[in-house]
Amino acid sequence: MFRTLTALSFASLVLGQQVGTNTAEKHPAMPISVCTAVGSCKTESTAVTLDANWRWTHATTGYTNCFGGEGWNATACPDGKTCAANCALDGADYGKTYGVSTPSSGALRLQFVTKNDNGKNVGSRLYLMASETKYRLFSLLNKEFTLDVDTSKLPCGLNGAVYFSEMDEDGGLKRFSGNKAGAKYGTGYCDSQCPGDIKFINGEANVDGWKDGAGKFGACCAEMDIWEANSDATAYTPHPCKVTEQTRCDGTDCGNGDDRYAGLCDKDGCDFNSFRMGNQDFYGNGKTVDTTKPITIVTQFITNDGTDTGTLSAINRFYVQSGKVIPNSLTVFEGIDPVNHISDNYCKQQKTVFGDNNYFGTIGGLAAMGKSLTKMVLVLSVWDDYAVSMNWLDSKFPGEADATKPGVARGRCEPTDGEPATVEAAHPDAYVVYSNIKFGAINSTFTAK
Ligand SMILES: *[C@@H]1O[C@H](CO)[C@@H](O)[C@H](O)[C@H]1NC(C)=O
Ligand SMILES: *[C@@H]1O[C@H](CO)[C@@H](O)[C@H](O)[C@H]1NC(C)=O
């Protein structure tokens, strides 16, 4: 939700937008189920690809880096267009270099820190593919999305995140002539933080004004966070934008700093974090939803008229564990109706009681989110937070605020737990496993008992 800079793999590697031939790109298989009713599901042969930002990018002629510890190589990358023409994006050795594996059919395991020949890789971000060259697009209105998550080995400060971003189906291959790699190589990422650390946007390198790991452009698009979590905290959050496709931003539109509530996207979103909403005994180690064991997470996108073309009116959440369906926790706050789902009314009341800017409502709330939900790409990731140490998810935030003020406490973690240097040194072995993805009609992917 307050995601800004992603911890990138090894400083020495980089990307381009041509295709490199050093390593053959072979997408790990990750089949999913598509359901029409309980017991009526079909398997779909999907796979995953690694985001372009993690890949080695080198000169098309030879193997010199286009980007290194000192930033962009000025010879290969004097400007964005030339750089995209000069640099190639290579295939990924998923297991060895990035710690990405498929322990069983339909399961994906992401290792937090992986030692490799180049040093180490930190975190990863992958996208579900429908074919070799196209992302699998999801139309979520009047549908539900379900998966199993094992967060037992994800401590405070980490985020195992499963979400949808409104990326181009082909990664921007058709829209941007400078992009020759496309979805096969994980190009075209965007999210509601309009991240500036994306090295290639719209088929051009983001070299202009590159400083402290970010360029002057950002990559904006609507984002629906299904699952942002570790073993101590969790939130699900819609983040609508004023735009309904991947859009390169510049200046105010990026919503950086003081422009936060003037940009193209709702960076705060309207989150539902059970701990933050007043139930501190619901989620965690040994709690009602017990993070020492795998959890099934169900998210339903309800429309006003119960059809796929209606307006998004609510986002419901259920958990299933040990065969038992556990409804989401109820909010407990004076001024907020006791509800266990997200609606525009919930968002308005929450923002009012917590004293937060309701930019979510300003740019159209759930109806705006719904417009984007018809063509979303599934993102599976694990990351640590170089901006604010994941305090917005599992500790207190903003840091200077009184933790007893409504909305400030998000979880039991210490604010320092998520400092990247600390968590990378203390928990390199951390990992998350995502499995059994199911998608389909409301109430078709799990059994209500
Ligand atoms: C920068 O790129 C040029 C042209 O590809 C190459 O000759 C040079 O070795 C590169 N420099 C570094 C430090 O990689
Ligand atoms: C789904 O199940 C819930 C709980 O049993 C029920 O309240 C709801 O009406 C069902 N929705 C649909 C569309 O069947």
How much of the sequence lies in strands comes to: 25-35%
Question: How many DSSP helices?
Answer: 7
Which bin fits the share of residues in helices?
10-25%
The secondary-structure class comes to mainly beta
Unreliable residue stretches: 1-15
Question: What is the residue-averaged pLDDT?
Answer: 94
Number of strands: 29
Give the CATH class: Mainly Beta
Rg, Å, rounded: 21 Å
- C-alpha termini separation: 33 Å
The outline comes out as globular
The CATH architecture category equals: Distorted Sandwich
Q: How many domains make up the 3D coordinates? A: 1
Could you give me the name of the CATH homologous superfamily?
Answer: Glycoside hydrolase, family 7, domain
The biggest beta sheet is recorded as: 9 strands, mixed
Query: What ligands does this structure carry?
Result: 2-acetamido-2-deoxy-beta-D-glucopyranose
Instruction: Write down the CATH topology.
Output: 1,4-Beta-D-Glucan Cellobiohydrolase I, Chain A
EC number: 3.2.1.-
Keywords: Carbohydrate metabolism, Cellulose degradation, Glycoprotein, Glycosidase, Hydrolase, Polysaccharide degradation, Signal
Enzyme class: hydrolase
Protein name: Glucanase
